[in-house]
Amino acid sequence: MTMNWTASATRRDFLCNIGFGVAALAIANTAVAQSREIPPLVSPDWLSKNLADPKLVIIDIRSAEQYRKGHIPGAIHVPTSTWAVSRNGLSLELPAEDVLREIIGKSGIDETSHVVIAGGIDTDFSRADATRVAWTCIVAGIPNASVLDGGHNRWLREIRTVSAESSERAPRKYTGRINDQMLANRKQVLAAIGRAAIVDARIPEEYFGAAAKFGHIKSAVNLPTPWVFLENGVYRKEEELRAMVSGVIGVNKSRDVIVYCGVGGYASTWWFLLTQLFGYRKVRVYDGSMEEWLKDPSSPVSTFSWH
User: How far is CA 79 from CA 43, 264, 269, in A?
Assistant: First the structure.
């Protein structure tokens, strides 16, 4: 079946210049792109061939029980929950800078590491966990943070070599620069309404307000993260993903784009694809997402109407 992602109402291919650091954002994302030495999405075959890379750090973000039962040889265990905190009544928030540096340092990672995130694919949310951790690493100044396409499940299907022996790396003092330009706050989202491409990464039922009484941020378009994956948890072909992107937000890679979802998980997937795979230079994650947006009754929200 061929999908037509063209949405003429969303083709607003003009630059947004509303003065909230977009130039710095473009510079930061360009620097990441120029520093990338490994593919953003790696296959089990690629990972198997690069296990001896001294810069390689495989991070298994699944549960402790899953890790103990078997993991990719050499993978260290730093679960998803380690990479996010609850703060000010919001869940799945980026940790404070000192905490984030401590997490990375204890994991034996530095700015030159080739980090591959291996997660699970059993639910739509767990599929997005890998990009959430990769996004966190890139924000923290690690440009070569990549995702194992298809996760641990695909590794088992294609390689089958696993280890039950726990792996650790010597801790380091991490002093990398945190690129907070890659985040948007509520005030910046408000200023971007009707000007930037605001992307809602939730499923259509939530975007339209059919699954709940809430809808979406005013002027937002919909790119559902669960639609990024095939049934086996592997990402769709690049040309299919590109069609989704170009049809909904256009092909102008200098557009200002803000991605959000429910709490910040799904949003990371589209941020990762837009910036690391397709080269969009001005993409931010609204980490507070709808969880924060709905706390203020004055926040502009749109819902589906048959009229």
Answer: 21, 17, 18
pLDDT along the chain (307 residues), means of 10: 38 37 71 86 98 97 97 98 96 97 98 98 97 98 98 96 96 95 97 98 94 88 98 98 98 97 98 97 98 96 81
**Contact call for residues 274 and 248 (beta carbons, < 8 A):** no
Q: Give the sign of the dihedral formed by CA 204, CA 125, CA 288, CA 248.
A: negative
Report how far residue 199's alpha carbon sits from residue 213's, in angstroms, rounded to the nearest whole number: 19
- CA 59 → CA 45, 68, 72, 168, 231, distances in Å? 17, 14, 9, 10, 24
Return the biggest CA–CA distance within the chain.
61
Q: Give residue for tokens 């296990």.
A: 51
What angle, 0 to 180 degrees and rounded to 10, lies between the N-to-C axes of helices 151-158 and 124-139?
Answer: 110
Query: Which residue carries 């003429």 as its tokens?
Result: 8
Residue type, position 31, single letter: A
Q: Look at residue 307 in the predicted model and tell me its pLDDT.
A: 61
3-state secondary structure of 87: strand
Rounded CA gap, 245 and 265, in Å?
A: 18
The four Cα atoms 241, 244, 245, 246 give a dihedral, to 10 degrees, of 120
Tokens of 182: 């890659």
pTM strictly above 0.85: yes
CA 15 from centroid of its chain's CA atoms: 23
- Give residue 15's pLDDT: 33
Which CA distances in Å does 114 have to 91, 142, 194, 252, 280? 28, 8, 38, 29, 22
